[in-house]
Amino acid sequence: MTQFVADPDEAVAGIGDGVSVMIGGFGTAGQPVELIEALVRSGARDLTVVNNNAGNGDVGLAALIGAGRVRKIICSFPRQSDSHHFDAKYRAGEIELELVPQGNLAERIRAGGAGLGGFFTPTGYGTLLAEGRETREIGGRHYVFELPLTADFALVKAHRADGMGNLTYRKTARNFGPVMATAARHTIVQVAQVVPTGGIDPEVVVTPGIFVDTVVELPSAQPAPEEDGQ
Amino acid sequence: MTQFVADPDEAVAGIGDGVSVMIGGFGTAGQPVELIEALVRSGARDLTVVNNNAGNGDVGLAALIGAGRVRKIICSFPRQSDSHHFDAKYRAGEIELELVPQGNLAERIRAGGAGLGGFFTPTGYGTLLAEGRETREIGGRHYVFELPLTADFALVKAHRADGMGNLTYRKTARNFGPVMATAARHTIVQVAQVVPTGGIDPEVVVTPGIFVDTVVELPSAQPAPEEDGQ
Amino acid sequence: MTDEAATLSAAGPLTRDEVARVVARDIPSGSYVNLGIGLPTKVANHLEPDSGVVLHTENGMLGMGPEAHGDEVDHDLINAGKIPVTELPGAAYFHHADSFAMMRGGHLDICVLGAYQVSAGGDLANWHTGRPDDIPAVGGAMDLALGAKQTFVMMDLFTRSGEPKLVPSCTYPLTGLACVSRVYTERAVFLLGDGQVRVRQTFGTNVADLQAGLPGVELVDATGRA
Amino acid sequence: MTDEAATLSAAGPLTRDEVARVVARDIPSGSYVNLGIGLPTKVANHLEPDSGVVLHTENGMLGMGPEAHGDEVDHDLINAGKIPVTELPGAAYFHHADSFAMMRGGHLDICVLGAYQVSAGGDLANWHTGRPDDIPAVGGAMDLALGAKQTFVMMDLFTRSGEPKLVPSCTYPLTGLACVSRVYTERAVFLLGDGQVRVRQTFGTNVADLQAGLPGVELVDATGRA
């Protein structure tokens, strides 16, 4: 059953030290900034974070990294024009980086949520990122073996939730949210609006409520804040 | 680009002898009966068919099997109360059966469409259906290796298409359609209604037009015909 | 033991509807549940309207309602047994790969299945009689068996010819290994796990008599009446 | 050779916008195309409005329109470079796993990418300089390189310091193996495949001069002017 809570601090109260947290978003689109800020306030440390990037500017994931709470990040694109918090921690040797091609990252998260033991992907074969990895030729094509990714928690930004926890998203802010929601033991979602059960057409639900543990309504959290360059 | 054709016979005209055809539907819900009937009329033979079942009653897939056009069927649940055409061909040794657990079937089709080389699944481990197959222990759990499935053609029944070939489905008739559309070299879709481009909200598209090669509008094809028992 | 349980225990073997009611009462409020075709579908009739239990059907739906009748019948809206059903408020549709990812990924709380045999170690046989003239059909059985957090089996304890269906090891082809955590029958509820078969509750019998009828399966009395 | 091609060939090395126009004209009407960040985004400016070309962006959209300005800007609607864009009629949104399944599954017709180096065999290096002090970031580069039916590279033929970027084998870390089928540069269009590097078109130069500047890469003259 999905629980509805009053504020972001209550939503993230269960996140302790040393856990793994998937965080939705591609840059700032779909990034659950208010939930991450609550996580910063909570004081949880020694976190392993899964996100496409490694923070932008000084808010959200960048602030979490800047505060020294992230031990390891699993992502595809850490280096950006405004990733100075990550850059500094990385060059100081204070954060571990696992770099995964973006499609393999998305597929590993999906595999985690789907109960698979791993899969063979053509992406990355013959590159640095596949060094030392198991490879296999299947049907004349070369593949690399990838393991599934799961996490203790997922923080996701969606658009609307109904009383059952069913979710819809908004435009390209959908990105990693739907797969991350399936791959965490506890999924925490911020939405711009909670509507009564029956208020979302069953045909257009993107994330069914079965994947949603906690919802917090944050009307002000919409739309995504502006960000710098690429 | 998606092509729009006038009738089911034109839609299936490119399907020759000896090809593989994925056919959507779970029982009769989502089964593209009119496209299959056109395929019967076309005379194509020696087909390999992928479907969840092996035909119900005397129409659609059952008729195709009854007409002796199917050399091999890959499915999860051939034996039903009204699968007499398949039963007769199977007992006569006139059709080859590859039996796949339903979730592995859906996942193999998805893997085919997603360009993966294969995956490890827990489903079927330790059973007859995994005999002689590669197995692996990953994180303390046992898995069986499954290969992707692709096909030359897919026949799918959807609800609406827009001018770009974007599709929506109706209720549980969605079933295998969306994954099969991704896994065939040529996907042929029958819909109850074609609407102008812009007539489907981009947030609710289930199958993007990139996966749709041919569309035929069949207003009378909706809803699914009644069927016998289980 | 509740008063009702005491009454059931005294009254003799349960009817199938009574077994379904026992299963239904064991499903916590708010659970996500898949009821297999056949006997387990009876459980739906005994879920309280306010239970908050959400039913999943493998063919792509959460929030499945009761069987459809009359004008409600829509052949695009069916359950795994291909019977027309209804949609409850807050339902959601999804495609087959997503539906089985949901099952395989362990997101359902409980799956209730029928069985030919269950072994003391929790192995399940429910898809194939193994007879050479049988046309095999597996459907979603193997996915369901190991997909949910807990798999309950609901079955008669003995075949019509009197053979026990709770056995030291299955002789029918397996559906899944070590996947069953509870077995609900007309004579008892068995809890499986850690290599033990614990008898939680008996109906018109006792553990000693059950033990006599289940050779090779070592029962542990957990009825609280030992 | 069209009149325009002849004019381009005579006029000297192309500007980047002219290269983008050559690429755009090679994209068949109705294609599904992903334009990588950086230089390839210029191709969009040269697609005819009635081309029917559908643009894909890795972050979950087909039917992407031009860059957004003023009131159009919506920070939930961005491209892979995280620039606000617009939505065309008939667009579709999907999640990241579906977006990359679409790419990896070979459903896009053409992907246009920038490059540090391309080898004669079609290997691509475009994600990492290999310098030890560089923070590596791969993003979707490896998925894009091998996902589309055809991968076009758009790059300058030489680095600022004059080193050729079309090479016998890449010295930068690879993005993908044998994935590039065409290379568009300011001096020529190269067709890669079957172990050959064929020169389809030159701009203000000729195959002999190109060959002199590209040591170790054996060029085949396919300009029709040989």
From TrEMBL, chains A, B:
Molecular function in Gene Ontology: CoA-transferase activity
Transferase is among the record's keywords: yes
Transferase recorded as keyword: yes
Keywords: Transferase
A Pfam match: CoA_trans
Classification via PROSITE patterns: COA_TRANSF_1 (PS01273)
Record family assignment: Belongs to the 3-oxoacid CoA-transferase subunit A family.
PANTHER family in the record: ACETATE COA-TRANSFERASE SUBUNIT ALPHA, KETOACID-COENZYME A TRANSFERASE
Protein name stated in the entry: 3-oxoadipate CoA-transferase alpha subunit
From TrEMBL, chains C, D:
Signal peptide: none
Domain of life: Bacteria
Keyword annotations: Transferase
Gene Ontology MF: a single term: CoA-transferase activity
Matching InterPro entries: 3-oxoacid_CoA-transf_B (IPR012791), CoA_trans_fam_I (IPR004165), NagB/RpiA_transferase-like (IPR037171)
Pfam family, one: CoA_trans
Recorded family membership: Belongs to the 3-oxoacid CoA-transferase subunit B family.
NCBIfam families named among the record's database cross-references: pcaJ_scoB_fam
Protein name (record): 3-oxoadipate CoA-transferase, beta subunit
